[in-house]
Amino acid sequence: MKAHDALYIDGAWRPAASGDVIEVVNPADEQVIGKVPAGGALDIDTAVRAARAALPAWAATPPAERAARLAALHRALDGRKDEIAATVTAELGSPPKFSEAVHAAVPLAVAASFAELAARHSFEEKVGNSTVLHEPIGVVGAITPWNYPLHQIVAKVAPALAAGCTIVLKPAEDTPLVAQLFAEAVHEAGVPAGVFNLVTGLGPVAGQALAEHPGVDLVSFTGSTAVGRQIGAVAGAAVKKVALELGGKSANVILPSADLARAVNVGVANVMSNSGQTCSAWTRMLVHRDQYAEAVELAATAAAKYGDRIGPVVSAKQRARVRGYIEKGIAEGARLVAGGPEAPRERGYFVSPTVFADVTPEMTIAQEEIFGPVLTILRYEDEEDALRIANGTVYGLAGAVWAAEEAEAVAFARRMDTGQVDINGGRFNPLAPFGGYKQSGVGRELGSHGLAEYLQTKSLQF
Fold first, then answer.
1. 279 an active-site residue?
2. 165 in catalytic set
3. Can you say how many angstroms the Cα of residue 108 is from the centroid of all Cα atoms in its chain?
4. pLDDT value at position 121?
5. Given 91, 279, 369, 408, the catalytic residue
6. Residues 216, 221, 224, 226, Cα dihedral to 10°
């Protein structure tokens, strides 16, 4: 068991104001594997004050030097990549290979991209007789989720550092151990005291205190739409900026000309990755009526091959939530063709890879985010019907389109109300903006668009 008894504030490890702790549980075997302090409002206040005190000097630091600190952070994280992967496997339950390939490697790529971007980004421009300055927005309150714990930390902290902001991070209470490793890497990288601060704690306590704190200029939150609404309301009352990356119910549209087998198999893999705990997962597969029966058979076969190798979901609460949705799908008349609500193991928070056929657009499982390894397959009559179904939820985070010709897929994708669309299995790009339409969020992460979230503009007229 790994016990952390301190918070990282103002460049040093210090105890929390209270002696309360959060136990970290391995979801694969339900054993306690670690403890972290349960920081509260007093700790948040101390951290925000440290961030405010450090802000003027860090904001005035030349971009090249900030880029050098980010490059050093990348090196420090790279030196811990094996420990990072093992830690995420332990606290999230992610299979080791997935932890290595995604939970450790992707944040490294994102950190490297911001180190490079900080070195070449222009923080001022000429517009007619004006010079427009792009300045750091100030102190950032970053609240991150448990499903991709290190990636979401890096996706917020790296651009904030590049912009010249200072940060207080409140990581998810289910997966706080990797955040401790990140703080160690920040310290090793020589980031000045107070520029980055870590307060572990419960969302309704530490998270709320961070969102409400008058010393915070921007709240960057990734999580559920319900909590995002609450944070938006708090920030709106204080007229402070928010960046919200929220829920999704993304459509995977397979047009009739597509390679059906490849599209279905990749689509199933996408939903099962990370045990379905991915906000951008393509959880609605849309197939033309003439190919529907074949697609259902392919998907059921593909899902059955995963078994419990996808790993558990993060907690007993999350398992109960996912099982509840599966039972709801059955009750509303969807046809279960793989998996189901029964536990595949006696111990651990496992959910069977599940596929539903004969799903109609109005069903709960076709409208609400399940956040588990559950795929719904819907049939469409023609392209206009497919577009209506694809755009027919309150979400708009991601999606996919498959077609024989790239131009055909792109033409359809242009009409989708969503923030990111993969064409014929397009690869992840750490420089491409990521974020949602509608109730999937406000703002963008990654690349230059992600950096812009942490900047404000000032114009000088001559």
1. yes
2. no
3. 15
4. 96
5. 279
6. 30
